[in-house]
Amino acid sequence: MSSRPPPPSVPSQSVALGELARAQRRAGRSAMLGLALLGMAAFASPLLAYREDLQNAREEVLGSLSSQARVQAEALGVHLGLLEAELRRLAENPQLTPEDGSSGPEMAVLDSAFHHSHLFSEGVALLSPSGRRVWSDPPQMSLGDSPLHTRPWFRRVLAEGVSDISLLEGKDGPLVVAVPILRAGEVVGLLVGELRAGARPLPGVQPGGADMTLLLDEGGQLLLPVPSPRFAWTPERAARMHLLAEAPGPLILDGKRMLGAAAPVPTPEGVSGMLLAVLEDEERDIERLRHRFLGQFLFHVALLGSTLLIFTFLLRRSYHSLMAAEERLRHQETMAALGSASQLIAHEVKNALNGIQAALSLLRPAASAGEVALPALRAQVQRLGHLARSLLSFGTPPRSAAMRHACELRLLVEEALQPVRLLPEAEDVHLEVSLAEGITVQADPALLVSAIDNLLRNAVEAGAVARDTGLRPSPWVRVTLSREAGEAVVRVEDNAGGVDPNLEPRLWEPFATARAKGVGLGLPMARAAVEAHGGSLTYTRLPDGSRFTLRLPLESTT
Q: Phi and psi for 512 in degrees, rounded to 5?
């Protein structure tokens, strides 16, 4: 006995193909994840560069403010030192004796030194130890509202005999430079020069350099704001200004973010240390930079975004193409394996059926029971034979065009109708046939007859089931052949209720069936046979049944 190779292991191939599909999906997800990470990195790069550029611009502004504060503080210190030296030079003149009141020589010396002088913008005054005005230029020069002897700078000059620079009155008035007049170690009077805030020549505190310039004394009192601030001065803000001398940086004033730097003012001997702070509006200084950097950032993002979108589109397209190719490969592999298995099974079944059918042909019915049994057996053998032929056709590729020749389609349809009329189900289904003559096609007769046979059997069997279930008391099947627009058209219609809607999307797939007696190979094989002839096979749902339309090109007459 010859041995046959075992059929391919369909479940093993299915498992392998499933693993391949899952691996491809995992690869696709990994690619998408990698693309997302790449996009995040691409967007983060210009953002980090933008932040770094802003930080560099801020540091440049702070460096410029530090240099400005240091230069202007030194210039202001030199200027105040010159003013104090000029007052001290005059205070050492022996002709100045304010304790004796004004005298002609004193007035001459003072007028000569300060008359219409621009050294002190508000003027110069000679005061007695009691705070009385002895002389001033201009004569109406204001010395404030409160008594002079109550003011801290006045008391300090009298008590310590040293120069002082402070405000005329507490928190108001111009800046004063006070120098003591010493005779035998005692203070006999004071020379006081007043400077108006922001007036020239006060280098370092005049507007035009920074947005705001502040001059503080050692105690944190605000001496010369230029311009006058709109916020309340507090010890906390004074402490923050002193910190700017050590580390320039940002601060908030009056709800506005500013950048600042400070430097100590070198002052004459005996004068308490002062601090000059310069402030600029951070938003105004780096707004242009921010706009420029932001424009570059947005351009970079748009460029990267468009690149990523194109790359994503191409990747998704490639991924879907890969999945479609894998699905086609899986389908082909599955069909090939099933075809090999069905061919092997059908071959064995067909051999057995041939023996059974030969034995039945030798039998003669001996009684009335035999007259019923033999036709039933022959019908079942015929059904199994049809099944075996279907399995063999499924496992065999369509034959080439060399097997085709001119055939009258009416004869092929009638040939397919003969075995169908012998079916037991045909007794319960009314069969209507209308076949036009003279329609010739190039066809493989056996292949085309098998396709039409499958359509007819399905319709008759569906009608018998509809009658048995009470759905259609009088089922019918209508077969027509006609010529339409250069095509031969075969229609098989029935009133059996139509294909199950749940099965309709898979109607043309192998082994898709809703009938207990079917294996789901008839329609796929019929469509494959028709398409091999260059035709088409379609399904249409009717109100009470189904219509299958088979179209074939007519034989060319040229």
A: -95, 110
Write down the H helix ranges in 223-281.
Answer: 235-246
| Cβ burial, residue 184 (10 Å; 0-12/13-18/19+) | exposed
Burial 337-364 (b: 16+ CB within 10 A, else e): bbbbbbbbbbeebbeebeeeeeeeeeee
Dihedral (Cα; 178, 184, 188, 194), 10-degree rounding = -10
State the Cα–Cα distance between residues 163 and 90, nearest whole angstrom.
Answer: 13
List C-alpha distances in Å: 32 to 29, 140, 309, 312, 321: 5, 86, 12, 8, 15
The sign of the torsion formed by the CA atoms of 243, 265, 152, 184 equals: positive
Angle 384-386-392 from CA coordinates, rounded to 5°: 105
Query: In this structure, what are the phi and psi dihedrals at residue 223, rounded to the nearest 5 degrees?
Result: -95, -55
Phi, psi dihedrals of residue 160, rounded to the nearest 5°: -105, -15
**What is the rounded distance in angstroms from the CA atom of residue 114 to the CA atom of residue 107?**
10
DSSP result, 64-129: HHHHHHHHHHHHHHHHHHHHHHHHHHHHT-TT--GGG---HHHHHHHHHHHTT-SSSSSEEEEE-T
Short-list 20, 122, 10, CA closest to 327: 20
Instruction: State both tokens at 360.
Output: 């039945």
Cα separation, 131 vs 53, in Å, equals 59
How many degrees, rounded to 5, is the angle at CA 523 between CA 455 and CA 347?
A: 100
Sheet holding 133-137, edge to edge: 133-137, 123-127, 186-195, 172-183, 164-169
Which stretch of DSSP H or E encloses residue 133? strand 133-137
Comparing C-alpha atoms, which of 79, 127, 128, 89 is closest to residue 109? 89
The tens-digit pLDDT sequence of the chain (558 residues) is 444 444 444 444 445 555 655 665 666 666 667 666 766 766 677 777 778 878 888 888 889 899 989 988 888 888 888 888 889 888 888 878 776 666 777 777 887 777 666 778 888 998 989 888 888 888 888 888 888 888 988 999 999 999 988 888 877 678 889 999 998 888 989 999 988 765 554 665 655 566 788 888 888 888 877 556 777 888 888 899 899 999 999 888 877 888 899 999 887 776 768 898 988 888 776 777 777 777 777 887 787 778 778 877 877 787 788 777 777 777 677 666 666 666 666 655 666 666 676 666 666 655 554 454 566 566 556 656 655 665 556 555 555 455 778 899 999 999 989 888 888 888 889 999 999 999 999 888 888 888 898 899 899 999 999 998 888 899 999 999 999 988 999 999 999 988 888 888 888 887 767 665 566 777 888 898 899 889 999 999 999 999 999 999 998 765
Quote the DSSP letter at residue 425: G
474-479: list long-range contacts, CB under 8 Å, 24+ apart.
474/430, 475/428, 475/429, 475/430, 476/429, 476/430, 476/431, 476/432, 477/429, 477/430, 477/431, 477/432, 478/432, 478/433, 478/434, 479/413, 479/417, 479/431, 479/432, 479/433, 479/434, 479/435
